[in-house]
Design a protein that fits this description.
3 domains; Beta-Lactamase; rod-shaped; 5-stranded antiparallel beta sheet; 5-stranded mixed beta sheet; 53% helix; alpha+beta; Sensor protein; Helix Hairpins; Heat Shock Protein 90; disordered C terminus; EC 2.7.13.3; 12 strands; 474 residues
């Protein structure tokens, strides 16, 4: 069951207030009880001193008779104060001493006694008066009832309990109102967040007037929206590009098949049609495999199966593999530099192949392609440079995007489906590297880098390498 934050805060504030009121009330209760007991002992001392003087001067039977009358006059009718005198001489006796279990005692001879016959507890003190004249030594006991103090403490405790309860209830109600007022920005954020939908992905939470605690949360939420918006936009673009790329071979397949079915065809004509359809199927398979590869790369996979190799040797192997395309384009390649790194050989070779094929396709006959390997900071950079037409800055920043073509209607569009450079970027990121492109002084340079100290990833290499052979140019 969902609980209101305002109610939870109000309840916690009320519990804290009740705890504070209880502690304060307990302290006041103990202080008041101590003071009442102190005042009762002081009052008992005063009465004891008066009774002691009366008894002390009763040195003859006549004066003792007068002392007894004075003690009787001093005792109230409600029995709240009791005087008792006892001695070895029965004549010098007065009253009945309070007897019973001692509840508590204090220094100075004070004792709180619970009378045997019942009734309120009595605070007693007993003093010895030495012999004087005809009077023998006597024991004087003065007792005062504790019932007034008990009634006062009972009323005071009940009042404290009632006031603590009422105070806690007031804190509960006020805290709920204050909490709702304080959480108003959170309510506004909730409404704004609820309004975000695929139709208004650009909407963001307003953080201008938020308190500090909510500002960080709103900024984090806006950051998440930015990332989701970017991912959603890339997904839309990717789906549209995929649909566009697959529509062409499917249209060609349908058209060729319909033409073949319009009339009877010879075996050679049918073989030619099937061969053409097979080429389109191969192109579709390449697109699908590249899409799957990029999808796995988007999930954050790292290159595994890393081995320590000479990058120059790997590039030389790729150049040997591309010897025929180089001859057909009437260009030659030269290799400069070397470095040793831990790479996935298949992925590294595929990235080199894609960059070299891109250079071959955009290089004039008789020109030279230069492959340079060098270390930059903690990255090993492989750059492929070829003479060519200058590339506009607006185009440079999109060359590694998926399905992007600087020349929409170039002659080799059917052989290239716009994923080659995107795959190079994915492979570089799998090796914790980056990509870059430069166009200056009539030379276009495409490069990718890998981390100089690549670490094994935790995902299986088969998942990264599956689908497309290393030599596919994309």
């Amino acid at each position: 069951m969902n609980r209101s934050i305002a109610r939870r805060l109000a309840l916690m504030f009320a519990l804290v207030a009740l705890l504070v009121f209880t502690l304060i009330g307990t302290g006041l209760f103990l202080v008041l009880r101590t003071q009442l007991e102190h005042h009762l002992r002081e009052s008992l001392d005063d009465r004891t001193e008066i009774a002691r003087i009366i008894v002390y001067h009763a040195v003859t039977p006549e004066k003792w008779r007068m002392a007894r009358e004075k003690l009787t006059d001093m005792m109230p009718h409600d029995g709240s104060t009791v005087y008792a005198v006892s001695s070895t001489d029965p004549y010098f006796h007065y009253g009945k001493p309070i007897e019973g279990p001692v509840v508590s005692s204090w220094p100075g001879g004070y004792a709180r006694v619970s009378p045997v016959g019942g009734g309120a507890d009595m605070l007693t003190i007993t003093v010895t008066i030495p012999a004087y004249g005809a009077r023998p030594p006597v024991q004087l006991q003065v007792a005062a009832s504790c019932s007034p103090n008990t009634r006062t403490m009972r009323v005071f405790g009940a009042a404290l309990a009632a006031l603590s309860a009422l105070g806690s209830l007031a804190v509960l109600l006020l805290s709920y109102s204050v909490a709702r007022l304080g959480l108003a920005p959170l309510t506004r954020l909730t409404r704004e967040a609820s309004a975000v939908s695929p139709n208004n992905r650009s909407q963001r939470l307003n953080t201008a007037s938020l308190p500090l605690e909510l500002s960080d949360l709103a900024n984090s939420f806006n950051g998440a929206l930015e990332r989701l918006d970017g991912a959603y936009g890339r997904l839309e673009s990717f789906n549209a590009d995929v649909a566009h790329e697959l529509r062409t071979p499917v249209t060609i397949l349908i058209g060729q098949t319909e033409v073949a079915l319009t009339r009877n065809r010879s075996v050679d004509d049918l073989r030619h049609t099937l061969q053409s359809n097979l080429e389109e199927f191969e192109r579709m398979r390449a697109i699908i495999n590249d899409m799957l590869f990029l999808a796995r790369a988007d999930q954050g996979e790292r290159a595994t199966g890393l081995v320590e190799v000479s990058l120059a040797a790997e590039v030389a192997h790729t150049l040997e593999f591309l010897e025929i395309p180089l001859e057909e384009a009437r260009v030659h390649a030269q290799l400069r530099g070397d470095a040793v790194a831990r790479v996935n050989r298949s992925l590294f070779g595929r990235a080199c192949t894609n960059l070299l094929m891109n250079a071959i396709q955009h290089c004039a006959p008789g020109a030279a392609i230069t492959v340079t390997i060098l270390e930059v900071a903690d990255q090993l950079r492989v750059a492929v440079a070829n003479p060519g037409e200058p590339i506009e800055p607006a185009v440079l920043e999109h060359l590694f995007d998926r399905f992007y073509r600087a020349e929409v209607s170039r002659t080799n569009s059917r052989e290239n489906h716009g994923l080659g450079l995107a795959i190079v970027k994915a492979i570089a990121e799998m090796h914790r590297g980056t990509v870059s492109v430069e166009s200056a002084n009539g030379v276009n340079t495409f490069a990718f880098s890998i981390a100089a100290s690549s670490m094994e990833a935790s995902l299986p290499a088969a998942r990264v390498n599956a689908g497309v052979p290393a030599e596919a140019a994309g």
